[in-house]
Amino acid sequence: MNRLAGATSPYLLQHADNPVDWWPWCDEAFAEAKRRDVPVLISVGYAACHWCHVMAHESFENEQVGALMNADFVSIKVDREERPDVDAVYMTATQAMTGQGGWPMTVFATPDGTPFFCGTYFPRANFVRLLQSVAAAWRDQREEVVRQGAAVVEAIGGAQAVGGPTAPLDAPLLDAAAAKLAGEYDATNGGFGGAPKFPPHMNLLFLLRQHQRTGDPRSLEIVRHTAEAMARGGIYDQLAGGFARYSVDGHWTVPHFEKMLYDNALLLRLYTQLWRLTGDPLARRVARDTARFLADELHRPGDGFASALDADTEGVEGLTYAWTPAQLVEVLGEDDGRFAADLFAVTEEGTFEHGMSVLRLARDVDDVAPETRVRWQQVVGRLLTARDTRPQPARDDKVVAAWNGLAITAIVEFQQVAALYASSQDEDANLMEGVTIVADGAMRDAAEHLASVHLVDGRLRRVSRGGVVGEPAGVLEDYGCVAEAFCALHQLTGEGRWLTLAGGLLDTALEHFAAPGGAFYDTADDAERLVTRPADPTDNATPSGRSALIAGLVAYAALTGETRYREAAEVALGTVAPIVGQHARFTGYAATVGEALLSGPYEIAVATDDPIGDPLVAAAHRHAPPGAVVVAGRPDQPGVPLLADRPLVDGRSAAYVCRGFVCQRPVTTVEDLVAELG
After folding, report:
1. Among 183, 474, 537, 636, which is most exposed with the fewest C-beta within 10 angstroms?
2. What would the DSSP string read from start to end of 544-561?
3. Three-state SS at 239
């Protein structure tokens, strides 16, 4: 009996017809293992994971393998995106036992959930031998198996410890982190490290803010070079926009083709802020097209943003995206086909498999003659039309609260920066306007979905699908990312309810997730008990729960003037500071928030009757220091604390600038405002 048919997770539904007697993660599964006196096999993955699909096809769809699993184990299938707490505990165990981790993750555990053997992907023959060996060990060497499991739990309990050393995250430490990143920077290809190479969005956001504070040209150069290398590489979809999860090589050429919501949200923030600070036309284009990708490909009306597009199409990686020179000629004709092959580095040898190439941008298109730009845009349109007739990757359409929070924050920032250039008359002005309108609608839709569907009795739920909320409770990153998003939406709209919702989430997090010494656990005090209670302070593919919550606390404190939230943020950031000094690549979001606190952050209120078109508002956004909050609207607008008791000055709009709750005199000219923000 396979019990996955009623799941909200597309990943679990992919296994609903397996010959494996799968259980979802639940108490009943462990009770069944105890009743039968057999181990638990926990298989963790996610819908867009290529090797998860491979292991499913090789093993979980095989009748003989299924029979072995059913005879000797209770098998539990877990979507890591739906249950990040379960994933975190067993990933720590896997890394402790094997020295590495990844998905699919395969864990054998006692009926109380204690892991005693862990691994990742196993080919079918190896997996069959492993099943037989573990079953024999459970029968014949039970005492040794239990002892090994206890040692693993002790090890991972230490790895998840809280209450360690603290330090202030001050300017010298942040500058040292920037210097450490510069020392690990790949000056040839951009980014950090070798293959596989992941987009270092949070590190680059930090370096942008560090450059704003210090004027350090090295930090800006690292950001600009890496951003351009990624945008020109195969990791970026040159036709439809949006970034793949990572590059399998060290130079951004061949991607692992899955496209994740969280990556694209964080990269949208990066390119938006690079555009704001430098006016870079490539950053502008990539920000625009990434926002369009989020709105067109991952959002569904009346719902939130979906989690991902699959790496595979009909079981084949790159089937949708790769091209040969002959295919370009077939779609475009001889002349434009050769133009496209040269522009996108499509060769007879190919850069991918079977003589196929992933499109890269080998020539500049942002600073060229208008006729070349027109030709490029026409070629892109025709190729995209042709590509749309190919089989398309599946979409993981579950809505994850934290990742939707990241997307909302990113689109708010994109909207604010796009508004600065709304009066431009270049050839892309109409396209930019269209994208901002569509992205704004998608963002507001997602926010309403989180507020009405994911918020249940004052507590966040982690996932939903098809408008139906799932059972898994929200973890710390959900509370932090959604609170930060609601603070951003409050700034964009001037609506007090978003700030109220943010405050409620932060209060819940402070009450239920607090750990000794000002740190935070990743799960609530009333959440399901796992073999350990996770508390990971490091930023990886997404901000850690701790970093995300600190960001929400900092923004909320600046918007409300309530100092206890800032104090909680400062103490919590102190628990991460020692890691920032040692492992800068894994604390990018914490360092980004640290720059905001070091900056103030600035609180900018513009009292105006025209919050959209007022030049003071535009100047505030254009020149905002790191982490600044900006609110504009009528004086004493209900629900907007920053506008309380801040009138117009002699009938003119006025900007009120505060830093760390210390305020300057109001100014009425753009020049004076820029001087105060400088």
Report:
1. 183
2. -HHHHHHHHHHHHHHHH-
3. coil
